[in-house]
Amino acid sequence: MIIFSKNKELVCMIGKYLAEVQESLNAFRDAIRYLMENHLDEHFRIIAKKVHQHESHADDIRREIEKFMFGKSLLPETREDILNVIEILDKISNPCEDILSDFILQKTVIIPEIRTDFLELVDISCESSKLIAEAFWDCLGKCRKMDEYNVKIDDNESLGDSLEGKMIGAIFDAELDKVEKIIQRDFVKKLGTICNICEHVMDKLVICGIKRQV
């Protein structure tokens, strides 16, 4: 790593942080897949709890990173850029927790008309989170693949928007009462925010990379 070549402890913490964020997304995907194939039961609640555990661990590591970075001789602008990226990245798990909590509290079942697309959007969200972690390391390194990651994240966000619109259309075409349509729509819109957050993070990483090359 160019920025943190002499700060191995910080690099290690960032690696752990990114791993926890990704594991929270993976647990979210596992929970949704289980729910689609089975039903709301205790095993689903156990998987859902893992999302919160990973998110909580990520929060703890993020706070340690913040303390550590302010104690090091990094350029203020570099420190601010990296902390801004982590702050936004920290929000990725929020819609995951909200969706799983809503499933448990509302006992909602995703209608058959959108299940396939819902699962696809979950997979895209997980892939985007993984790409963001890779782009983060590239940004801290030689910034050789930032354009490639930017294109991939943008493509995922566009595909996510397309799936979101398709699902919302299917929901309002379905034979459901108005309240149920709104509930189903809200699940879709919350899921769609994950790709949007990833795109926001990528925008910050691109700017950070450009600053470092000027």
General description of the model:
- 83% of the residues lie in helices and 0% in strands.
- The chain has 214 residues and is mainly α.
- The protein has a single domain (8-213), classed as Methane Monooxygenase Hydroxylase, Chain G, domain 1, CATH 1.20.58.220.
- α1 (8-37) runs parallel beside α4 (93-106), α3 (76-89) packs antiparallel against α7 and α5 runs parallel beside α7 (178-213).
- The longest helix is centred in the C-terminal third of the chain and has 36 residues, at 178-213.
- It is globular, with a radius of gyration of 19 Å.
Radius of gyration: 19 Å
Kindly identify the CATH topology: Methane Monooxygenase Hydroxylase, Chain G, domain 1
Major β-sheet, in short? Answer: none
CATH superfamily: Phosphate transport system protein phou homolog 2, domain 2
CATH C-level name = Mainly Alpha
**Tally of DSSP β-strands:** 0
Compute the average pLDDT.
Answer: 89
Flag low-confidence runs.
none
Query: What is the overall shape?
Result: globular
Structural class given helices, strands, pairing? mainly alpha
Q: Provide a count of the helices.
A: 7
Provide the CATH architecture.
Up-down Bundle
Order of helices and strands: HHHHHHH
- The end-to-end span amounts to 18 Å
Approximately how much beta-strand content do the residues carry?
under 5%
Helix content: over 70%
Count of structural domains: 1
